[in-house]
Specification:
Distance between the termini: 48 Å
Strand content: 5-15%
Number of domains: 1
Mean pLDDT: 92
Low-confidence stretches: none
Number of strands: 10
Largest sheet: 5 strands, parallel
Order of helices and strands: HHEEHEHEEHEHHEHEHEEH
CATH topology: TIM Barrel
Bound molecules: zinc ion
Shape: globular
């Protein structure tokens, strides 16, 4: 079967979005103007008592400077903490004194080790990286069809980490958590299949890294759409996870459950006004 794309990885965000339609680009631009206007009236520095979980997918080569600036922005407006500490704070169910940011990454892309990890080291920050175990160690040469299937749009090629990369991230103090075996919609699976995804990925990570895998991040992450709120966090808890992270935006205050963590999606190239807008909502 002949493919019209060349099997090479996306290295810049500019390339990554090059295939977007004119309508998509227009919508992105319109939204950007609205966010810029709305951010002007907002402040992060009023009130405290929360943990926010910013999450990224990638730090492309042309996003390095932006990512570094964003880490400085967060450190200026609160304390950066690791996921073990953040989950322990929520589990304690006591008033949260201060403003905290706990950074996470989803999917398992190669630019975590080439771009994100060195910048995090410069800032002295540790984060949680959630990997899809079935994609770790794939290569564009060997696994082209599988990689093409990772995105619905089907024409983007992202390189994934290998297990040595994951061990290096763990050795640098980061958490490596599970994002399932196959990047599945848990809501579409029966209970045995869902449990197999959560349990199997946990066991693989623990075997490869030689340490406990305590945290789970749900692919796509929308309650009632991508996972079943009355089933899947319970499965996660039963098979031994301490957390279940979603993609619902917002802050997590006292009383928030570690098995239903809200997160704020970010692009590493975004400016301060975008962070200000999303972190104050
Ligand atoms: Zn994902």
């Amino acid at each position: 079967m002949t493919r019209s794309i060349s099997p090479s990885p996306a290295r810049t965000y500019r390339d990554f979005v090059a295939g977007q339609s004119v309508m998509q680009k227009a919508r992105t631009q319109a939204r950007d103007w609205a966010v810029r206007a709305l951010a002007a009236g907002r402040s992060l520095d009023t009130g405290s008592g929360w943990i926010r979980f910013p999450y990224y997918h990638h730090v492309f080569d042309d996003e390095r400077d932006g990512f570094s600036r964003q880490l400085s922005f967060m450190a200026d407006h609160g304390d950066l903490i690791g996921l073990d500490d953040a989950v322990a704070m929520l589990a304690a169910n006591e008033p949260i004194e201060g403003r905290f940011f706990c950074i996470t990454f989803d999917d398992g892309f190669k630019n975590w080790i080439t771009n994100a990890a060195p910048i995090l080291a410069d800032h002295g920050a540790t984060v949680a990286f959630f990997v899809v175990t079935g994609f770790i160690g794939t290569s564009i040469d060997q696994d082209l069809e599988k990689l093409l299937g990772f995105y619905d749009s089907g024409d983007l090629l992202m390189e994934f980490l290998d297990w040595d990369d994951c061990r290096a991230l763990a050795a640098a103090g980061h958490i490596v958590g599970s994002h399932t075996q196959g990047h599945v919609h848990l809501a579409d699976l029966d209970i045995a299949e869902a449990e197999a995804e959560l349990k199997g990925s946990k066991e693989t990570i623990e075997a490869e890294l030689g340490r406990a895998c305590d945290h789970f991040c749900c692919p796509f992450g929308r309650e009632g759409v991508d996972y079943l709120a009355d089933r899947d966090p319970d499965i996660a808890s039963r098979v031994g996870y301490k957390s279940f992270l979603t993609t619902r935006r917002g802050k997590n205050g006292v009383g928030a459950s570690p098995l239903s963590i809200r997160r704020d999606h970010l692009l590493a190239g975004w400016g301060d006004y975008q962070l200000k807008y999303f972190f104050s909502g």
